[in-house]
Amino acid sequence: MLPHGATYGASLPDCPMLLFLYYFIILVTSFPIQGYLSREVACFYLFAKCMHQLFRFPLALIGSSLCLALVTPQSLLAGGWPQEVGRTFIKITFGSSSSNTVYRFDGKTKYPTDNGGATVRDYPLADRGLVLYLEHGVTSDLTLIADVALKRSIITSPLEQRTTEGVGDVGLSARYRFFSSGPHVLSGRADFSLPTGYRRDITPPLGNGNLNLSLSAEYGVSFYRAPAYATATLGYRMRPSIYAFSSLDDESEEFEPDYADVVTAEAEVGYRLFNRFLVTGSIRYLRTTRSDDNDFDVVHPPETEQYLKVGGGIAVSVWKNFAISADLSATPSGKKTANSRDLFIGISWQGRLFDSQSNQN
Asked: Which of 126, 151, 203, 154 is nearest to 6 (CA)?
């Protein structure tokens, strides 16, 4: 499933904070800021406007996401390699995740919203999202990372359809390269996930509502002279019961689940063709530090979970520092998780955010 976060039963501008951001960013983007940006970044700015028209996500929220980013799809330089000093990587990804079945606590599948003889077989669980991801090289070894998602989550039962949409958690990260020798690189990464005030007790749930802190080791190796690489990541995510940055729809009832910590492992291989196409294959495994025999619950995120995802993708360099990408993954096994098929389509840009002439002025 896609990253969580939002408000149930309200369109995006119905939230006062989002309404303020909406008009504030519209005011900012009404000025000719393209004159202060490099030509490539100006084109990226125009692409954001196109995404607003195509997917009906407010441009203001894309702009506010960029502001927050200066404080969940990954860059092509993941796996331990930092960004060069002063260079920035930006990626906007549209994601779609759909599930006909879910995995029970024993690993068997079931239909999640059936009610007696009434059934739903046309993807009763669905997520749609727009993710903004940013990396910036601060030093030769240190890279700062941020991401934020706009998301729409849908649960369809035989009786009704419920939809939640809004801004998900804000992610703040740092990657530091500790070791580099020849084609090998090893880095440490710290990730901090902060809820944006959404209600954690609504259905469908669009966020755990608690703070998350992850620590991981990232390894990468280049197979130069062959145009290929491989990466591996091992991480641990702490999910303490700190709910100060989310809210409750029903304040009369306490809702503070005891989410288990998470261990993650992932690997990726990539091969570049004709210096323009990058073909990748990936595998990701997630498991919580404890398990239970409670069944999958579509009302609230599971406190424990386990899944294996496998997938692949292709990225194409289309013009100067721009690339477009498409990634597809499936979930062949799991416990208390959605048996989802995930599709991500993105556009990325890598370079210096401001022209040197603009900096001199």
From this structure: 151
